[in-house]
Write a structure and sequence with these properties.
InterPro entries: AcTrfase_RimI/Ard1, Acyl_CoA_acyltransferase, Bact_Acetyltransf, GNAT_dom. By secondary structure, the chain is α+β, with helices and mostly antiparallel strands. It is built from four helices and seven strands. Helices cover 30% and strands 38% of the residues. It has a seven-stranded mixed β-sheet, sandwiched between helices. The model has no long low-confidence stretch (mean pLDDT 96). The structure holds coenzyme A. Coenzyme A (COA) binds next to strand 4, helix 3 and helix 4.
Length: 152
């Protein structure tokens, strides 16, 4: 089943903020940060996945020059495991390539198996570890890179 995707718009921010808080707890972005991210277009590009009227996922990239970065990606727990994350990530990869980037980078907690699997299966490679990066629990950060010249 294909996942409908569209650009994130201002009226979506309340829903996105609530979903972000559900997924990331105290690490969720503030409303102010979300406004700043959306105001950062076109360098920042945010996409939402929908089921009917409902937003079930979101993701965004920063495109500046040869290297683009994944800013965030998340899927409503009720919609996880059904390919929404994969569809969003494939879209972000496409957008980064279309913007002229040669690589897409991201950072993920070493203990986030779901996200790591998603990225590795999409062609990302682990290129660096930042030891004890995430506080207060001292979890490593893995830096992953997708080569946009080879990743489909
Ligand atoms: C990571 C996340 C975005 C994945 O979204 P999703 O819609 O559940 O993922 P998909 O259903 O598209 O699955 C894509 C891949 O993720 C991996 N995955 C999904 N569910 C998984 C699970 N329960 N256990 C392990 N890997 C899993 C698999 O590799 C899967 O590919 P496959 O189906 O070909 O095996 C989602 O789990 C999420 O929002 N997590 C909380 C927020 C978060 O951690 N974001 C990333 C921060 S870096």
């Amino acid at each position: 089943m294909t996942t409908p995707l569209r650009e994130l718009e201002w009226p979506d921010l309340a829903d996105i903020g609530a979903l972000d808080e559900q997924l990331f707890g105290q690490d969720a972005w503030s409303a102010r940060s979300w406004w700043a991210e959306l105001a950062g277009r076109p360098r920042r590009r945010y996409t939402v996945a929908t089921q009917g009227e409902r937003i079930v996922g979101y993701g965004g990239i920063d495109c500046a020059g040869a290297t683009a970065d994944v800013m965030t990606i998340g899927v409503d727990p009720a919609a996880q495991g059904a390919g929404v994350g994969r569809a969003l990530l494939a879209h972000l990869l496409r957008q980064a390539r279309e913007a002229g980037a040669e690589a897409l980078l991201l950072e993920v907690r070493a203990d986030n198996d779901r996200a790591r699997n998603l990225y590795l299966r999409a062609g990302f490679e682990h290129i660096q570890t930042r030891r004890n990066y995430y506080r207060p629990d001292n979890v490593d950060a893995h830096i992953l890179r997708a080569d946009l010249k080879v990743t489909a």
